[in-house]
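Hi R.,

As promised on Friday, here is the backbone we talked about, encoded as structure tokens. Could you run it through your design pipeline when you get a chance and send me back a sequence?
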């Protein structure tokens, strides 16, 4: 497991300061026994050192001394021998600023060398199981841009959880039951009728009008002629729906595989109805007193469940009373269960039946009103849905070309689908751009920018840094016989320029970035890090020569460059983007 050198340095600052205080107290220079809570931060300006502690300011009152006086006494009792730091200085009203030394920088190189593509791996999720459910598009038509974004957000988030030590399961929830499938079947049937009768134009309002529906009807007609017309209506519609799903689901799998996404399971909603899980979950809510009957339907007391949830989260009673809360129907008067009832059963299946500690879903922002209601329903089942179900809500995608919105494919004349997008841009570009912004921010996907080969294109910028280093290593090896040394052979004290130390510090940040990405459910943290690392490398390389330098300096800089290559490859692989060796 990777040592988080950022955290390790912070912990060492805290420990050094604590020991200095204890020594000062033992010597009678400061009162003993004070319990002082102080922060250790990374200053924005490196002139203020690499790490700073506010211990003297936080403890001044308890110690009965001026903060600068406390800080000066701590300095006099502090020993940096054998630590990560070369010096510590008093600054401002009483801050102690620590400057990193060679031991820490050498460790950055040696850890990355030892761990390679496992650099950043941790065991913080050890023993915990997480399911990431994403895309889950209705199988009634092609996947659109929102599904494309949700795909890379979910897949990358799952990869981050794996790196953090969780046992991860990727799942696609197939809505193959309910109203939308009935509507799907009716739409195919209406087009089937048209093809037989020779009629043209739109079908009944409210049905799916897309050309893909006509294609399905045409395939049925080609395979079975007009024979399905003689079937009883319900049987015909069932066959239409089954045929449509048999075509569409494999297409979805094919598109997602091309996009670099594979699932552990495609979970069918219909199984929840067939095995009685929906009815059983509704009955469990009834037994716990959370349902009631009205107008022949069975309702969930969502209002009371939400009130309890919001109060437990710290919302005031006054504010809760002002909320316009509504209850939800679980079973209609006709005896059919609602989509919400099936959703409760599905998430109960995740948390209770299959025992996942955490269920993480990637949904479109238009589902925001559904989040708290589903969590509250799971709370009602005693499953702690408010904490164990996490919903990542993502904003819309705006596709642009020539600075203008694009809604139709030039090739097909239809709405842009995932497979259309991948005809226009590379999988690498699509995955990088869709993962480049926080899920809560809309994405402007510029088709022109995504194919440009310059530094304005972020995926090109990062991949070019990797390819540039590969080319450099190959060239120096061939022309100068200079090969990348082992970390233990490098004199890190020779890496003293501001660009070199900045690059080493950025390399050390990678494990911390993964931890933050997991904590905040924000996979775009990795993209921002990669762009920053590529930028630091380009600045280092433009300011510091390797070829022609004294051998020890050249080797140290070459090792630094190759370490950047390793981490760039690591991060790109994590987000499902290739790390090319030449461009």
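Update: got your reply. Pasting your designed sequence below so it's all in one thread:
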């Amino acid at each position: 497991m990777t040592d988080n050198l950022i955290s390790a340095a912070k912990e060492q600052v805290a420990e050094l300061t604590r020991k200095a205080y204890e020594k000062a107290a033992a010597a009678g220079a400061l009162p003993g026994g004070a319990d002082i809570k102080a922060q250790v931060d990374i200053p924005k300006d490196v002139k203020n050192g690499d790490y700073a502690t506010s211990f003297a300011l936080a403890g001044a009152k308890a110690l009965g001394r001026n903060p600068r006086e406390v800080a000066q006494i701590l300095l006099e009792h502090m020993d940096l021998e054998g630590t990560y730091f070369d010096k510590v200085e008093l600054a401002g009203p009483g801050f102690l600023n620590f400057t990193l030394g060679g031991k820490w920088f050498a460790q950055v190189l040696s850890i990355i060398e030892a761990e390679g593509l496992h650099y950043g791996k941790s065991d913080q999720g050890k023993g915990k199981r997480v399911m990431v459910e994403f895309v889950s598009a209705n199988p009634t038509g092609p996947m659109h841009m929102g599904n494309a974004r949700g795909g890379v957000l979910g897949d990358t988030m799952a990869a981050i959880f794996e790196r953090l030590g969780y046992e991860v399961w990727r799942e696609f929830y197939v809505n193959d039951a309910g109203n939308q499938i009935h509507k799907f079947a009716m739409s195919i049937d209406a087009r089937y009728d048209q093809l037989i009768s020779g009629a043209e134009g739109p079908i009944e309002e409210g049905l799916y009008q897309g050309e893909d529906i006509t294609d399905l009807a045409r395939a049925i007609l080609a395979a079975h002629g007009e024979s399905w017309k003689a079937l009883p209506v319900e049987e015909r519609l069932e066959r239409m729906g089954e045929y449509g799903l048999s075509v569409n689901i494999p297409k979805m799998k094919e598109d997602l595989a091309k996009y670099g996404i594979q699932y552990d399971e495609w979970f069918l909603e219909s199984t929840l109805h067939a095995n009685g899980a929906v009815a059983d979950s509704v009955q469990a809510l009834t037994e716990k007193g959370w349902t009631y009957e009205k107008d022949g339907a069975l309702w969930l007391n969502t209002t009371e469940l939400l009130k309890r949830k919001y109060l437990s989260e710290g919302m005031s009673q006054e504010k809760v009373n002002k909320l316009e809360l509504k209850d939800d129907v679980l079973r209609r008067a006709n005896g059919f269960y609602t989509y919400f009832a099936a959703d409760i059963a599905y998430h109960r299946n995740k948390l209770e039946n299959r025992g996942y500690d955490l269920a993480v879903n990637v949904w479109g922002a238009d589902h925001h009103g559904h989040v708290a209601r589903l969590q509250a329903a799971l709370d009602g089942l005693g499953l702690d849905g408010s904490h164990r179900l996490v919903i990542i809500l993502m904003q819309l995608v705006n596709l642009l070309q020539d600075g203008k919105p694009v809604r139709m494919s030039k090739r097909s004349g239809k709405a842009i689908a995932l497979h259309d997008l991948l005809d226009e841009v590379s999988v690498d570009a699509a995955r990088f751009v869709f993962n480049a912004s926080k899920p809560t921010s809309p994405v402007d996907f510029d088709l022109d920018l995504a194919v440009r080969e310059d530094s304005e294109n972020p995926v090109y910028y990062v991949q070019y840094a990797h390819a540039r280093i590969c080319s450099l290593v190959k060239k120096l090896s061939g022309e100068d016989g200079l090969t990348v040394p082992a970390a233990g052979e490098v004199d890190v004290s020779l890496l003293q320029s501001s660009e070199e130390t900045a690059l080493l510090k950025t390399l050390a940040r990678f494990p911390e970035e993964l931890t933050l990405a997991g904590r905040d459910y924000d996979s775009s943290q990795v993209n921002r890090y990669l762009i920053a690392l590529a930028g630091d490398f380009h600045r280092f390389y433009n300011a510091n020569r390797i070829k022609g330098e004294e051998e020890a300096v050249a080797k140290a800089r070459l090792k630094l460059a190759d370490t950047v290559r390793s981490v760039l490859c690591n991060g790109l692989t994590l987000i499902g983007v290739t790390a090319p060796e030449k461009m």
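One thing I noticed while checking it: The first helix runs from residue 5 to 26.

Thanks again,
M.
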